[in-house]
Every structure is written in structure tokens, then in C-alpha cells.
Design a protein that fits this description.
Blueprint: H1 2-12, E1 20-24, E2 37-40, E3 55-58, H2 68-82, E4 86-87, E5 94-97, E6 106-111, E7 114-119, H3 121-134, E8 137-139, E9 145-146, E10 149-150
Antiparallel strand pairs: 1-7, 1-8, 2-3, 4-5, 5-6, 6-7, 9-10
């Protein structure tokens, strides 16, 4: 991830606008599991005492499952692709739209539910509005910290 951040910062330095951060709130709750997941009834549940083994069947969002990060990543990837972003072949944490490197209109760095993005001002505004329609976001005007690194702009 450190190399991804370094590459993103090198590309971001070529753009006149400042880097903007976004945080998707409750990110793991946005994904939908494609296959059903079965749960044993919890201890103390009245139906657990039956001889027949009963389970719950779930299809939707389950925060604590091992599969939750994978489902979230697939969900975010499909949303970013709908906006026209393409993941770099050399680094799947960095997405770009419209050109290569400094010719791109928008460059996005993804780390789980945290995003940094920079590019053409109009494209950045469209991107932010697009994501607001899909997820609940926490945003600040300028990126000052990202995964433990201080960002000076």
C-alpha cells in the first residue's frame, strides 16, 4: 500500500487542485452476498433445544463475516467502473479515468473504505456527487492524514 500511496502522490503533484479525501461510512454493510449464508442459532435461543438442527439463512449484509471485505471490494470496484474509472494493471488500488498518468481526468486511490482523489475540478465534483448517490460519505475539504501518513499540500 505504501508504494500505491507514493505513486498516487507523484501523479497528484502534477494536478493544480488539492487532493480530496472521502470515507465511506459502514462500508462493509453496502455489499450484498451472492450466495446464501447459513448460521446456527445462538446459544439460549428457544428453538435450539429441538432435536432437528435449525439454521438461519441470510442473503444480505453481515458485518463480521470473513467474506465482508471481499464483498465490499467487489461492490466498490463495480461502482467505480460504472463511473468510468479503470484500475491500473500495475496497481489495483489506483483507478484512473480518461488518459494515462498526468493526462488522466481523475485519479483515485482506494484503501478499504478510504479514498483519495485528484484531477480535473469538474470531474472531481461529478465523482463526489456520484458516490454520494451510492454511499453515505464522510468528507473533508483537504487531505491531511491518510492511513497514518501526514499529507502537506
Amino acid at each position: 500500500m505504501i508504494m500505491s500511496l507514493k505513486v498516487f502522490m507523484m501523479v497528484a503533484a502534477a494536478f493544480p487542485d488539492k487532493i480530496r479525501p472521502l470515507d465511506v461510512t459502514s462500508a462493509f454493510l453496502h455489499g450484498r452476498v451472492k450466495q446464501p449464508i447459513y448460521f446456527e442459532l445462538p446459544a439460549g435461543h428457544p428453538d435450539r433445544k429441538r432435536k432437528a438442527r435449525l439454521v438461519w439463512k441470510g442473503f444480505s449484509r453481515f458485518y463480521g463475516l470473513k467474506i465482508a471485505p471481499i464483498v465490499w471490494n467487489q461492490t466498490l470496484d463495480s461502482v467505480l467502473k460504472k463511473f468510468g474509472l479503470v484500475a491500473l494493471r500495475s496497481d489495483c488500488c489506483i483507478y484512473q479515468k480518461g488518459g494515462k498518468g498526468t493526462k488522466a481526468k481523475l485519479v483515485v486511490l482506494v484503501y478499504v473504505d478510504d479514498l483519495l482523489y485528484v484531477g480535473d475540478r469538474d470531474e472531481m465534483n461529478r465523482f463526489e456527487k456520484f458516490l454520494e448517490q451510492k454511499f453515505e460519505l464522510r468528507k473533508t475539504k483537504n487531505a491531511k492524514h491518510f492511513i497514518g501518513f501526514q499529507i502537506d499540500q
